């Protein structure tokens, strides 16, 4: 194979990779740089992917840019943690603060399809009250979105991604049956279920974006368990194999290995296009509307790097909120060893879940959390054992021998927004000559209280099923949110409910960075649901003459 | 805590070799390409100088001591290769310079401290002398001119341990040692429940069944 997708773009010359057939191509429409396309979308992940597809299907001209490679999973993906770091955003980022965030693996993707190419496929809905956490639950801020409308977009997203889940989900308002049946639960997942039952809590098969029966060109999941380093069979319903192929079919263009470094604005304060780096040089693409979907680090970075005399603090930053209120989710875990052979690497890693503490409000902290079964691969596992237990040498080698007997429970918990947790620009430059980011993060008291509560609960669950040699992983975090908050006013947020920036009317932001709060579940399905809504809103606003195309 | 270990053997999965599956449906071409390349790593310094290489090799022996009954994983070669290609993790503590410089500085501190305390190179110290310095580094108590104890702690916990363990547990030898199924595409797995084993998964030995298991594991593929 002469083509290396990390070095040479693949979506060129009127064709893009057919991700379902080795060596095959699908036709792709191409737009001229001098032609102002209706929409440029920067980022092709959980937010960008659905937008590119839906806007193209509505008949708009759309180009989707991604800094990462256009992979062919059937040919490019090895069953190997190390080499599959090719899916991660590994460009340098500085981290500091009281609790620096480890970047680059579980929270950052660099590929067409974004981090959905390596996400764990967990596809959950927000608890309705989280859209009004200030009014209903007394903390943080409300969203300008109505949960009932979101519920309809969750329905759509779940159908588009053929989510495999239970017949009835134990928590929250009624929802339709999941499109695909739930996956068989594995050994590690069963221990979660037994622990939850011993505690008197409900549990469920986790709704997952990997198909439990064939769907189009996607075969049924074969339970290889390498989900978090990329699915080599296309069972996983990532953006790369769902919305992106739809987008191409509908006439969108995808530009891979295309790093957007700056959004150009004119004297009227409107966006006119984007400067992007591809094939060794800078280019300029004209556009009537620009949508940024680069996730919570690259989105503020791009907007900060696009500062002008008129917008000296970065685009869409009149409020001063851009880059602020960065949120991760607490991702602490408790592990133990069973007498049985569990072989927890088999199957998707998070096959069962309990959302008990997302829906129970009798507790001494704000926000919620869930926990899920675990199945880390050896590299990730050795890093967790070593860093959490302070082990190396022979002691570590011996502990690693228990790999097939391990079980674990890992939380996804809501950290609260803080203005001090933020993304700024550093002096240092990257390979494109662009200032890199500095990511500053510290846990607040509420975050710490929740983490201790969750660790105690997860430990009790493992004790109740007879796990031995139990220990806690206290330092892990996952997922990103915030930095371009959605809100009710231009003074205290970056975008409105339609993801349109308050300051630049033809500039939009649609990814996890618009989250005012992050909830106690994995964010990807909510990002996708908001993107589907935003596409509909754009069409409506255009028909009403409120968008110029 | 080890009283309930099902099996205190060093060879928990005797006879099991994940490489036996190389030509089965558990390995696709992409996997064969990357693992073949991994096994072919040049066992020599290409980025570090000779003294740094010896310091690194000593650290590798302490972080992951390897049994003598099978060929060792060439850990120093993988760390050197990572530095040569400058493959980065995607973040850097703001207190540290880029990883190549961090590694060179950190190795120099181990060497300088060894000379200052024992008048010998780090690689010439006894294992317990080496470990004492490493424990101090990990605890944030080992600084040296121009390189703070905090930087040394970040270097040891965030680079030394991460990169050496990352090299070890990325190697088929380690996968076989812990009974990990290894690469699994496109075949995947079928038997999902506790105590169920697919025929291409390793069998765990008990002290009584070592030789029987060794024979059985030779057919696992």
TrEMBL record, chain A:
Recorded protein name is: Glucose-methanol-choline oxidoreductase
> Which positions fall inside the Glucose-methanol-choline oxidoreductase N-terminal domain?
108-328
**Do you know which Gene3D superfamilies this protein is assigned to?**
FAD/NAD(P)-binding domain (3.50.50.60)
Q: Which family does it belong to?
A: Belongs to the GMC oxidoreductase family.
Among its keywords, does the record have Zinc-finger?
Answer: no
- Protein keywords: FAD, Flavoprotein, Oxidoreductase
Q: Where is the Glucose-methanol-choline oxidoreductase C-terminal domain?
A: 417-531
Native source species: Asaia krungthepensis NRIC 0535
Record's InterPro entries? FAD/NAD-bd_sf (IPR036188), GMC_OxRdtase_N (IPR000172), GMC_OxRtase_C (IPR007867)
From TrEMBL, chain B:
Superkingdom field: Bacteria
Q: Specify where the region named Disordered lies, as residue ranges.
A: 200-221
Q: Where is the composition biased (Basic and acidic residues)?
A: 209-221
Which InterPro entries would you find in this protein's record? Gluconate_2DH_su3
Q: Which Pfam families match?
A: Gluconate_2-dh3
Protein name in UniProt: Gluconate 2-dehydrogenase
């Amino acid at each position: 194979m002469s083509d290396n997708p990390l070095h040479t773009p693949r979506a060129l010359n009127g064709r893009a990779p057919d991700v379902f057939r080795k060596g095959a191509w699908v036709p792709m429409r191409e737009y001229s740089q001098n032609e102002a396309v209706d929409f440029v979308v920067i980022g092709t992940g959980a937010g960008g992917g659905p937008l590119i597809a839906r806007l193209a299907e509505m008949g708009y001209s759309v180009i989707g840019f991604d800094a990462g490679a256009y992979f062919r999973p059937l040919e490019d993906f090895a069953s190997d943690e190390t080499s599959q770091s090719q899916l991660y955003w590994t460009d340098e980022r500085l981290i500091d603060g009281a609790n620096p965030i480890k970047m680059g693996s579980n929270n950052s993707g660099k590929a067409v399809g974004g981090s959905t190419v390596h996400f764990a496929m967990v596809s959950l809905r927000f608890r309705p009250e989280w859209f009004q956490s200030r009014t209903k639950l007394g903390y943080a801020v409300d969203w300008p979105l109505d949960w009932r409308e979101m519920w309809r977009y969750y329905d759509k997203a779940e159908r588009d991604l053929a989510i495999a889940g239970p017949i009835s989900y134990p928590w929250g308002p009624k929802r339709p049956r999941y499109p695909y049946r739930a996956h068989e639960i594995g050994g590690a997942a069963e221990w979660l279920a037994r622990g939850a039952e011993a505690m008197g809590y409900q549990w469920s098969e986790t709704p997952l974006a990997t198909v439990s029966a064939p769907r189009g060109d996607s075969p049924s999941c074969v339970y290889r368990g390498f989900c978090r380093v990329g699915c080599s069979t296309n069972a996983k319903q990532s953006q790369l194999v769902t919305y992106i192929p739809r987008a191409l079919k509908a006439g969108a263009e995808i530009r891979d290995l295309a790093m957007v470094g700056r959004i150009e604005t004119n004297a009227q304060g409107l966006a006119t296009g984007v400067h992007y780096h591809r094939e060794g040089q800078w280019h300029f693409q004209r556009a009537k509307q620009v949508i940024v979907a680069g996730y919570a680090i690259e989105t503020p970075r791009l907007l900060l790097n696009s500062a002008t005399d008129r917008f000296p603090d970065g685009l869409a930053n009149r409020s001063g909120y851009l880059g602020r209120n960065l949120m991760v989710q607490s991702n602490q875990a408790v592990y133990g060893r069973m007498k049985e052979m569990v072989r927890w690497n088999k199957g998707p890693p998070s096959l069962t879940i309990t959302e008990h503490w997302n829906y129970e409000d009798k507790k001494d902290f704000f926000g919620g959390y869930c926990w899920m079964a675990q199945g880390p691969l050896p590299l990730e596992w050795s890093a967790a054992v070593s860093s959490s237990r302070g082990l190396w040498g022979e002691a570590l080698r011996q502990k690693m021998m228990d790999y097939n007997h391990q079980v674990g429970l890992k939380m996804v918990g809501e950290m609260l927004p803080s203005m001090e947790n933020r993304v700024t620009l550093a002096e240092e430059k990257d390979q494109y000559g662009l200032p890199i980011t500095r990511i500053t993060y510290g846990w607040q008291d509420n975050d710490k209280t929740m983490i201790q509560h969750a660790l105690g609960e997860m430990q009790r669950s493992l004790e109740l099923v007879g796990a031995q040699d139990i220990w806690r992983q206290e330092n892990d975090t996952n997922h990103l949110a915030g930095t371009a908050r959605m809100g009710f006013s231009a003074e205290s947020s970056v975008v409105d409910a339609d993801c349109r920036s308050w300051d630049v009317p033809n500039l939009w932001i649609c990814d996890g960075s618009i989250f005012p709060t992050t909830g106690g579940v994995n964010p990807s399905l909510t990002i996708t649901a908001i993107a589907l809504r935003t596409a509909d809103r754009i069409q409506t606003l255009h028909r009403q003459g409120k968008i110029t195309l | 805590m080890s009283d309930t270990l099902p099996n205190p053997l060093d060879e928990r999965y005797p006879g099991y070799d994940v490489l036996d599956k190389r030509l089965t449906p558990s390995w696709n071409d992409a996997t064969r390409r990357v693992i073949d390349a991994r096994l072919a790593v040049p066992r020599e310094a290409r980025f570090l100088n000779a003294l740094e290489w010896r310091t690194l090799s000593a650290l590798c022996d302490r972080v992951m001591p390897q049994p003598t009954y099978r060929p060792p994983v060439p850990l120093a070669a993988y760390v050197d290769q990572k530095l040569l290609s400058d493959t980065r993790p995607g973040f850097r503590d703001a207190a540290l310079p880029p990883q190549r410089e961090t590694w060179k500085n950190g190795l120099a501190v181990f060497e300088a401290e060894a000379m200052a305390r024992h008048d010998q190179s780090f690689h010439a110290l006894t294992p317990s002398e080496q470990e004492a310095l490493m424990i101090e580094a990990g605890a944030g108590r080992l600084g040296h001119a121009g390189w703070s104890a905090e930087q040394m702690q970040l270097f040891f916990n965030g680079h030394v341990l991460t990169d050496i363990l990352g090299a070890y547990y990325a190697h088929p030898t380690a996968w076989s040692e812990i009974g990990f199924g290894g690469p699994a595409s496109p075949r995947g797995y079928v038997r999902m429940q506790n105590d169920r084993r697919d025929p291409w998964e390793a069998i765990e030995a008990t002290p009584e069944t070592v030789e029987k298991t060794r024979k059985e594991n030779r057919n696992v593929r």
